[in-house]
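Sharing in case it's useful to others searching the archive later.

Someone asked me privately for the predicted structure of ATP-binding cassette domain-containing protein, so I'm posting the question and my answer publicly. Question first, with the sequence:
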Amino acid sequence: MRPEHPPRAGGSVVFDGVSKRFGDHQALDDVSFALRPGKVTGLLGPNGAGKSTLLRILLGLARPDAGSAEVLGGEPLSAPERAQRVGVVMDAIGFHPRVTVRRQLEISARSLGLPSSRIAEVIGQVGLDGAERKRVKACSTGMRQRLALAVALLPDPELLILDEPLNGLDPDGIRWMRRLVERSADEGRTVLIASHMLSEVEQSVDDVVVLRRSVLFTGSLQELVRRGGGRLEDAYFALVEGADAAPRPEVTRA
Ligand SMILES: Nc1ncnc2c1ncn2[C@@H]1O[C@H](COP(=O)(O)OP(=O)(O)OP(=O)(O)O)[C@@H](O)[C@H]1O
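And my answer, the predicted structure tokens:
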């Protein structure tokens, strides 16, 4: 279902020479890439590659030691601006187990100053019809993912950030998520998906960034797949294993 109001144009994100160190550990080193507005970008990288750190910088939750992140045409947003313009689904965002689906959405809508009519719209968008009176603790993992997405979509965001959105989803949930991502981009949103699931990412994204502390690849999915002789997995492992002689990264080969 398309939202009642057409979304604004997808927002741009530009990382320029971003570095971040934790003590002796260089988590990000001179990271530069841009997200194309209205497109889906997959952020891929093994465990510890720096994906979450990069997302935190994008969201204004962490500051780079060097370089800059430009989000929606300016500095990373303040919390109130971000809530209005960016939809985020990250593991760290929890809901109180005793509230119902409907109540959670009411709380979120009110905090954003949105009319309650928006709640029915997002419930329809994420397919949570009939689950409104369920408490969060009684929801399956898939339903919680849908609720998290419903909250993220409430403000009709220009930018949608999804960190491991497929975790815990069954095949039906994965297919549903894929369609929602495609529709979000079709409606003009810029979407960034951080994921380990190469085969699923391959079906959803336009562009790919492969990260392992620094950017190993940034460009279109087709270009990366072509480099792998037609296989994303081969291209991906050639990049991350070529970048470092460290043990094989833990990446789901779904
Ligand atoms: N607050 C912190 N303090 C110290 N080290 C940190 C901190 N946050 C991240 N790191 C380290 O920085 C590196 C990058 O971590 P990050 O969580 O960004 O990677 P990731 O790509 O998201 O990994 P995963 O796929 O496992 O979630 C890791 O070595 C991690 O241990």
